[in-house]
């Protein structure tokens, strides 16, 4: 009985619950599915089947990491975002459902998905935003920028895996400094580090595994948002959009070179970011 799939899932769920994991049953199922190489349907069908010893070994290796509150995405090496699965590692932030609102906002303001736009993603990380935009706008070019060369390797791998790499380019550097001289865009997007230093103490345990430089500016949370706002006009075409994600820190004052079109919220009604147009 102790090797039956159902029993293993029950015991694992209890262990994960004790250490404060948000979705213990779901995490247990996903780890067993990965170790066993089965689908969720297969897992239900095999609930009373004995799990092979080699699968249990692999499963326990994953479980040991999750009990330390390491993000499940790092353990599985992937995370779903929008309509695809993205490869992730400890070199990039885990893509979050809240960031999908940024994609929705771009689609709202640029509804003609067949248009040949020039798009840029500042601080691309895993590339989830840039790659998704390249897929949603199949005639557009997308530049993905990040200060981390390791992040850019992950982003390019995702672009290749999802089939949009031929319309993407990747540049290393600090925000706009990474862009080619004179490049201007129809839309610039960014999900920059906006967690304040004070907030870092209250974050869930999983975030201690994620790259700190991608989470916080070690200050008020507004530093990089201010830079993105202040210098956007030089990199936007006439009428070009800047779409920024933010959080508890809010959004800096709008510079005279831009017009704020709207603030947008997540499904819980929390402030999530703002949309600006070149003045």
Outline the structure in words.
This protein is of the alpha/beta class and 279 residues long. It folds into two domains: 5-68; 82-278, Rossmann fold. It is 34% helix and 20% strand. The chain has nine helices and nine strands. The strands form two sheets. A seven-stranded mixed β-sheet has the order 5-4-3-6-7-9-8, sandwiched between helices. A two-stranded antiparallel sheet has the order 1-2. Helix 8 (149-162) links the parallel strand 4 and strand 5 (168-172).
What's this entry about, in short?
The protein is an alpha/beta fold and 279 residues long.
Shape category: elongated
Q: What is the H level of CATH, i.e. the homologous superfamily of the largest domain?
A: Vaccinia Virus protein VP39
The total of beta strands comes to 9
What integer is the average pLDDT? 96
Tell me the span between the first and last alpha carbons: 68 Å
CATH T-level topology of the largest domain: Rossmann fold
């Amino acid at each position: 009985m102790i090797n039956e799939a159902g029993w293993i899932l029950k015991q694992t769920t209890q262990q994960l619950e004790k250490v404060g994991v948000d979705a213990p049953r779901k995490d247990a199922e996903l780890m067993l599915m990965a170790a066993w190489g089965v689908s969720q349907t297969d897992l239900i069908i095999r609930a009373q089947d004995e799990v092979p010893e080699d699968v249990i070994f692999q499963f326990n290796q994953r479980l040991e990491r999750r009990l330390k509150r390491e993000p499940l995405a790092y353990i599985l090496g992937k995370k779903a975002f929008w309509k695809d699965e993205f490869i992730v590692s400890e070199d990039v932030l885990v893509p979050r459902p809240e960031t999908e609102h940024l994609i929705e906002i771009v689609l709202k303001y640029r509804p003609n998905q067949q248009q040949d736009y020039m798009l840029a993603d500042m601080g691309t990380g895993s590339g989830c935003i840039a790659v998704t935009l390249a897929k949603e706008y199949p005639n557009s070019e997308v530049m993905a920028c990040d200060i981390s060369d390791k992040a850019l390797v992950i982003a390019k791998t995702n672009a290749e895996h999802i089939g949009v790499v031929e319309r993407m380019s990747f540049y290393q550097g600090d925000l706009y400094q990474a862009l080619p001289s004179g490049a201007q865009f129809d839309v610039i997007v960014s999900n920059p580090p906006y967690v304040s230093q004070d907030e870092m103490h209250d974050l869930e345990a999983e975030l201690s595994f994620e790259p700190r430089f991608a989470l916080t500016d070690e200050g008020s949370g507004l530093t990089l948002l201010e830079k993105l706002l202040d210098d956007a006009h030089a990199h936007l075409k006439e009428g070009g959009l800047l779409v920024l994600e933010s959080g508890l820190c809010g959004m800096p004052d709008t510079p005279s070179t831009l017009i704020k079109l709207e603030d947008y919220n997540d499904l819980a009604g929390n402030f999530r970011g703002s949309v600006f147009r070149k003045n």
